[in-house]
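chain below, 435 aa
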Amino acid sequence: MNDPCAFSPSLARAFVSALTLVLVVLGSVPPAGARTVTVLNPAGIRADGAFVDQLLKEAMANSGLKKPRLAADFPRQRAEEVEITADELSEINELFYHRGWTDGLPIVPPTPERVAWMLAGADISPDFVIASLDPMGGQANIEKIAVNAVMAGCQPAYMPILIAAVEAVSEPEFDLRGVSTTTNPDTPLLLVSGPVVTELGLNCGTNTFGRGWRANAAISRALHLILQNVGGGWPGVTDMSTLGQPGEFVMLLAENAAANPWQPVHMALGLPQAASAVTVMAAEGYLGVLGIGQSCEGYLKLIASALKGQDRPYRSSVLLVVAQDTAGMLARAGWTKEKIEQFIREAAKVPFGEFKEQFIDTNMAQRGVPAWAFKISDPAQLVSKPFIDQLLIVVAGGTGEKSLLVPGWTAGHAVSREIRLPSNWRELLAADRYQ
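prediction:
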């Protein structure tokens, strides 16, 4: 005879489930699947030990800004244990987003295991500081670079390019502070050249500026996250770009060495021909130039005409991306980079009267007009428009005759740095089996 007071197995299980739920609500028992995940902090730390996020939060308070809503709300330590209730990926992404640590797209959680994996791409101590990054002075050591590289979806073999890029943007002539805080839509463009392009499988051919290649996208995205998180370039807080531009997510170009009839672009910036290099410039955007049906001179006049249409009297750097078919046509006709640059500079001139009306008679007069220009009296005298310090020429992209003109910001210059490969470079390439 059954005991009427005894629990049936099904009733017992129901009782245990109900009790567990009560204890979960009361906080005594973690919910099923709950666990702790350790993540490393991507935010910059200044030389005085202060996190840049705290300074950014103070700037937000002074300006009445509410986003990101969890700014500076984190433990002041290298690693943090985060309680996960269900899904690690979504919950870490939500947390990092509201702290201001993402670009709005999903990131890979920077766990210690993933960061250690990324650090295999650098044979330098994780504590070694590559540079102090404006505008907030966060120190970009090797580990901070690796943390942000993990978040961007990089492979360890990408680390040498990122290290060289961080070195380049920190140089005074690049003017990272100006680039990071201007109201202009400028953003760092990465230009990779040399043997590393083919070794890493960077896309230098068809759609080189576009989507579809992990290395192109992840390397550029990682640099932008480093500048945001370590340097403190927060949109709306320190980054005051009026409109911004999509290049703030990804903007990387690779030189097509196989289609290039001239010297590599990094030679114009003082590096050896055989080097692998990364060049950074503050790109304002780009303008397409259609060369179909044009002669060599006709094509170069199109470039000059586009330059004469610029709204600035001065550009510190301008990048001309020559399509490979057009580059072949120019080279066969005997045009060198030097001759191309000379022709463009001469053709991109306007009568001083026009220049004066647009730039000197307006509030643009202080934006790069050279002192000697104010002494010109002849309105018919030809002057450059704009004045250009660096005119860089690179061959990139696939077949066709569609070139690009990339105006640089008025203040900073393009800077090139040689990419130093670690001693385990071949092993890193072999490990990246999906490149």
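The chain has two domains: 38-285+420-435, 289-407. Residues 38-285+420-435 form one domain.
thats it, cya
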